[in-house]
Design goal:
By secondary structure, the chain is α/β, with parallel strands linked by helices. The chain contains six helices and 15 strands. Helices cover 27% and strands 26% of the residues.
Length: 258
Amino acid sequence: MNGSAVYDGALWEGARPASELASLLTRRDLLLELGAARTHARCVFGVPHHAGPGVDRIAERREEGGRVADENAVLYALAAHAALEARGVASRVVVAVHATDHDPNKDPRSPYCRSLLDGDPELVVECHGSGWATPHPIEVSAGTNEATRVLAFGRRLASALGEEAWVAAQARPGERDGLLLDADGSTLRPSALKFPALRTSSLHGAAARGIPALHVEAMPRFRTFGVHGLTLTQDGRALGHALAHAVEVTLARAATAG
């Protein structure tokens, strides 16, 4: 990353990001931060692999080659952030906008990883994008982060989404085994995860500080809208609101338990 920006303006113009924000989201090698001050945010939404409409690769200048981009993954993260703020829960969004020379959440020294954990938030949620051929519309995992009650979060997310999509959640941190959850959060059947995030540095860094951290993968229908580019889909809005609900309940349960 050779630049950084803090954005504190309006988020939306209809279903699209506000024009100034949209311009920032189509740049390269930019660390973009939105929302509450680092010391006040209870939850941080991270988007390490964001790329703008029609961009399918990032890290293209990396020695070992590029990787698949999460086109428009920032949209449902912004929806979750806005919904959580509307509920009175302070949150931040940290976006690595089209990193060209590294993989932001696999390098613990990256500006993204450092910013993500600044202020020691109570919860981190990384937002990613999977492909159309992925076996599950939404996957939720925690990598090897033992501080995270990932299955409980998955059940809350599935219940909040209802009939919008099934959720596959990691059964336990450190495993590929998952459970497919139905619209009321109950278990349908075992189902191995495609993206358990077992080697994700950002989740490891959170675990080292005792911070619960989650990795969410969402199919294209939650992120893109064809030729309309940076436009929040109805499914993306539903996912954002469901994430906000699951985060709010998770934070409340943790506060009660503490």
